[in-house]
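Quick note —
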Amino acid sequence: MNRNEVGTLKKGLDIFHLLVEQPGLSTQEIIEKLKLNQSTAYRLVSTLEQNHFISKNKQNRYAVSDILLSKLMNKNQQRHDYFLWRSVSFMDRLSSETGETTYIGMLQGTDVMITQAVQGKYATRTHHEIGDRLSLHADAIGKCLLAFQDKKEQIRIMDQLSFDQKTEHTITSLQLFHEELDRIKTNGYSLDNEEGEIGVRCIGAPIRKGDQVIAAIALTGPSVRMSREKDAFHIELVTACARAISETL
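Predicted structure written out below.
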């Protein structure tokens, strides 16, 4: 590819990126925003449209095409389904070894969304459904996910949290919560000491894809069975499970 071709490709990508950020632009608006030559702009817009990267509406305004968005969404769903499928066997093993319930959750705005669950064997157990949302500040998964965000993203999310008190053990002080997140990042795991519900304790650990934490797994159960005296045993199992899942991604 010669220098002219590279330059043309860059201009085409600039148009595409612009429409990702600002959908609904006319060709003339694209020309003005990117300071492109008129004939070059019309040719590149036409090429992008012919190859289904962008599409125009009845007002001749452009946006990323529905065809491309559909393909991307399907691919993301496939990756998500694959991740959940691969994680179940590890969750089963963790629940079998402990008898307790295991959850995986992901960040969803300022909440945790439960995306996978394997119930424990005991009659008395905690119970969340897939799709349930939990408070970030009072949950082992939520605190774990937040701890491994970069500082800028941490602050952005925390600025939106209400820090409402779920129990007498909930951390509601911003300073103490910052210290808690630092401790989680240093230790590599999180604890929920009856912060979301009295009588329930949880231990969480991050699931990574490369350098990015994409989810967290938690073991949860009644505090009479998941006592502090058993923390070392449970922490080892939970962190090992998180590492095993991460290695498959």
